[in-house]
Amino acid sequence: xxxxxxxxxxxxxxxxxxxxxxxxxxxxxxxxxxxxxxxxxxxxxxxxxxxxxxxxxxxxxxxxxxxxxxxxxxxxxxxxxxxxxxxxxxxxxxxxxxxxxxxxxxxxxxxxxxxxxxxxxxxxxxxxxxxxxxxxxxxxxxxxxxxxxxxxxxxxxxxxxxxxxxxxxxxxxxxxxxxxxxxxxxxxxxxxxxxxxxxxxxxxxxxxxxxxxxxxxxxxxxxxxxxxxxxxxxxxxxxxxxxxxxxxxxxxxxxxxxxxxxxxxxxxxxxxxxxxxxxxxxxxxxxxxxxxxxxxxxxxxxxxxxxxxxxxxxxxxxxxxxxxxxxxxxxxx
Length: 333
Hints:
The chain is an alpha+beta fold and about 325 residues long. The chain folds into 2 domains: about 1-215, no CATH class; about 225-325, CATH 2.40.50. Helices cover about 30% and strands about 30% of the residues. The protein has 7 helices and 11 strands. The strands form 2 sheets. It has a 6-stranded antiparallel sheet. The chain is elongated, with a radius of gyration of 26 Å.
């Protein structure tokens, strides 16, 4: 599997590899594990590697090798452009899975201050620059040059890089998803991570009792509230009940709840009639949630207040969904 940081990634001048071992300790001492659980954990680990590739602007290939027993052990080989870069990433990646003293910008209890966010961004930028310097040094070494660049600033520590990496929502959530999956499978009593494939090599081991401290809940997202927007009515609800209306908003077909009791009553008593092309001008709430990958998606629409109904639409007044890069289609009923 190959991860590309972006379209402008530099061409590889030669492959360098590093090792990563994932060790599942099984309660009954067996060497068998539920395949779905294991595959879900692997998907989250690969997702973290993909985020590392993007975050640190390094092209990374990942190869899987025959797994070992002693519980169950997966062997991954990380292949990049330069050995020093790969080793640095693995040195950060392995303890990241067991790093508990952290704060992230989601989940209420762990919100970062503006100063912490800026500090993490500075650490990430310094790390990217250091990785690029490693690449240039190795290129010069291959050309038998004796000149090496010196870091312009102190290199961030492993702990600083881990903190900064975990401040990235997708990395923190991917790690959380892995531990949530393991918590649902009683057979795993611990998990270990090592930067060596060799048996009995040092590893970071996390006991099952510690799994919950790595699990985070999706962030509560406030709805987007829009005023005086237009919805073309496709299917009104003409009887009392909890059925949803259907309409077209910003060229998207949506289902929505009508929370304007006055307008709803006028519809039920036939004071308001609809025809092809009928349009309401209303105040609209777009309900959002954070999904299991940390992306924000639309889950519902609520019309709070209807101002008027007409057959000729007025001009749209809101660009908020586009500005926020929200998928209006989302997952609605």
